Amino acid sequence: MSTSAGPLEGVKVLELGTLIAGPFASRLLGEFGAQVIKIEDPNGGDPLRKWRMLYPEVGGTSLWWAVQARNKKSVTLNLKAPEGKRILQQLAREADIVVENFRPGLLEKLGLGYDVLSAENPGLVMVRLSGYGQTGPYRDRPGFGSIAEAMGGLRHITGYPELPPPRIGISIGDSIAALHAVIGALMALHHRQANGGKGQVVDVSLYEAVFNMMESIVPEYGVYGAVRERTGASLPGIVPSNTYACKDGSIVIGGNSDPIFKRLMLAIERPDLADDPALAHNDGRVPRTREIDDAIAAWLAGRTIDEALDVLNAADVPVGRIYSAADMFTDPQFAARKMIEHFKWQDGLDIALPNVTPKFSDTPGGTRWLGPALGEHTDEVLAELGYDPAAIAGLRERKIV
């Protein structure tokens, strides 16, 4: 386990949320030293505890939980009870950041909106993640990452034109929103600390976070009325950049900068294309995309992945195999960067987790402990607020915690 304090040492985060977007945001803060107190419903806690593969397989805890909740303290609290609300307000008084991903308006209905939580802590930053944001005609609709991917434009441009738009195999919409949430939280903290500002609300909409990744689709439509469509494995308008078949599988090649394109054509024994002045720049290559892709495909057709990688790496062309999890566990680059770490969990199970990223030279982040049991830190946190054992026992008897 890591002993590094991390660059966010001293920052206190209160997490009010479940599943993916909000908890992923606070997970990232916790990985770099922030103290994260995760508030969970006493009746079962975060549903993510039971998502995907469990250990043990029957009645166990999600393996995902080990990483999504690492470095967090789990406190159970009934937010519908007046005593539970008072405890939350006590915790908020000491917090720098509150991360929440309930439906807009829910905290206000509970009497725990930003106006209430910041009344005694004007420096509080509240990060609010929701499907459509805190305003607008869609604010009250349920919003999941998959819907955000569709509305934000990602699904429309993903896949092959002759097939319905597929989903990416992870909850990418939630994760993109979480990254925006962390960026927003840190910018708000900087404003408070460096510019003498006060706390504020950071409003993160899942669909807007995805929309923010859509590169040039807005100006292209605004100026030319052009709607970018699905193009399979290629990157439209940037040539060559595609997935290509070898004898034993596929590789990805990015040969789209001008000098790389020339090196790629020489490597695949096509000096005629390398020296063609019409192909010297990307705008000249785009109309001849099929010709270029066909030339690359023809050269690869008789070669294995390893043979192709040897030649193209020697030519300094960006190229790579398509990794599965099994490939990651045996790859020397993953090993050199220590991107997969092993820990002991629960009954001594050896569990592999992804290492934290990015890497810091002086104050690195790390895993201090794995995802906690439900309410594991309730007594500890309440004691820090001044509750004695008898008072905590009374709260437990009344099902407040």
Question: Any overview of this molecule?
Answer:
The chain has 401 residues and is α/β, with parallel strands linked by helices. It has two domains: 261 residues, Rossmann fold, CATH 3.40.50.10540; 84 residues, formyl-coa transferase, domain 3. Helices cover 37% and strands 15% of the residues. The protein contains 18 helices and 13 strands. The protein has a six-stranded parallel beta sheet with strand order 5-2-1-6-7-8, with helices on both faces. Helix 1 packs across helix 7 and helix 6 crosses helix 7. It is elongated, with a radius of gyration of 25 Å. 34% of the residues are buried. The mean pLDDT is 96.
Outline of this structure?
With 401 residues, the protein is of the alpha/beta class. Helices cover 37% and strands 15% of the residues. The protein has 2 domains: 12-213 and 339-397, Crotonobetainyl-coa:carnitine coa-transferase, domain 1 (Rossmann fold, 3-Layer(aba) Sandwich), CATH 3.40.50.10540; 241-324, formyl-coa transferase, domain 3, CATH 3.30.1540.
Trace the largest sheet across and list its strands: 5-2-1-6-7-8
Superfamily (CATH H level) name of the largest domain: Crotonobetainyl-coa:carnitine coa-transferase, domain 1
What is the top-level CATH class of the largest domain? Answer: Alpha Beta
Distance between the termini: 29 Å
The CATH topology of the largest domain is Rossmann fold
Q: Count of helical segments?
A: 18
Q: How many domains would you count in the coordinates?
A: 2
Name the helicity range.
25-40%
Content of β-strand: 15-25%
The CATH architecture of the largest domain can be named as 3-Layer(aba) Sandwich
Secondary-structure-derived class: alpha/beta
Report the principal-axis shape: elongated
Major sheet characteristics:
6 strands, parallel
- Please mark out the parts with pLDDT under 50 across 5 or more consecutive residues, or reply none: none
Residue-averaged pLDDT: 96
The oligomerization state is single chain
How many E strands? 13
Q: Indicate the radius of gyration in whole angstroms.
A: 25 Å
